[in-house]
Amino acid sequence: MFNAYDIVTEAIDRATEGKPVGRSKAVYSPKCFGYNITLPYTGGDAGMAGEIKAACNAAMNREYIAGAETHARSIWLKLDKKEIESLLRAAVRELPEAGLADGDTMAGFTLMKMRTLAKSGDRGLSEDARILHAMWLALGITAFHKDKKRTRARLTEACKAIDGMFSGFAPDKRASARAMNGLAGMAAHKLIYAGIIIEEDGYI
Kind of pairing, strands 74-79 and 25-26? Predict the structure, then answer.
């Protein structure tokens, strides 16, 4: 099963091996606060966040981590937009084609909207916090594919975020914003469908 969160945390754990941090954890929060990963850290050195960011980017040989901050006993990392796009493209490649869904449900209705958005094609994602957050939540739908209850909760939160991801644009700018974010639809409709199948059948 495609699991974007495992892909990210395993890469970060390899990159930070030998550093004074614990294993990384993907952040799944309905609130959009801009960070994707946390690592436990007890060293107290505020400069360690920058060192972790540099270590990750050096290991990946690209701008993998766009931001890093130290907060109390943890370090927060923000993925670069290109990495979110890369994960969405992996979801498009690896997940099966989405079937039909009940449009009277939140998930089914959101799936249909994302299928329509997908027709805009892959032009990447806009540098918009709501869109990036919604796509990060969408990528988390399949993170616990053996847990129907957890998948149901994640599916609900992801759909809420997806439904509101263009709300930050002025009404006269939303059509052009949608045209620029076809990749979101291409990946999200497959991720939502996977979540629906897991919720209903417990597997995919």
Answer: unpaired
Rg of the chain over all Cα atoms, to the nearest angstrom: 17
What separation in angstroms does the CA of 62 have from each of 56, 58, 88, 90, 136?
9, 7, 18, 18, 20
Cβ atoms of 201 and 134 closer than 8 Å: no
157-162-163 Cα angle (round to 5): 100
DSSP H helices, the chain, are 4-15, 48-60, 81-94, 106-117, 129-139, 148-163, 174-179, 182-201
Contact 130, 181 (CB under 8 A): no
What's CA 62's distance to the chain center, in Å?
19
- Tell me how far apart the alpha carbons of residues 85 and 36 are, in angstroms, rounded to a whole number: 14
CA distances 105 to 81, 101, 114, 192, Å, are: 30, 8, 14, 12
Beta bridge partners of 37: 26, 77
**Residue 196 exposed, middle or buried by CB count within 10 Å (0-12, 13-18, 19+):** buried
pLDDT (tens digit per residue) in 56-80: 999 999 999 999 999 888 999 999 9
pTM value surpassing 0.85:
yes
Confidence of residue 100 (pLDDT cuts 50, 70, 90): confident
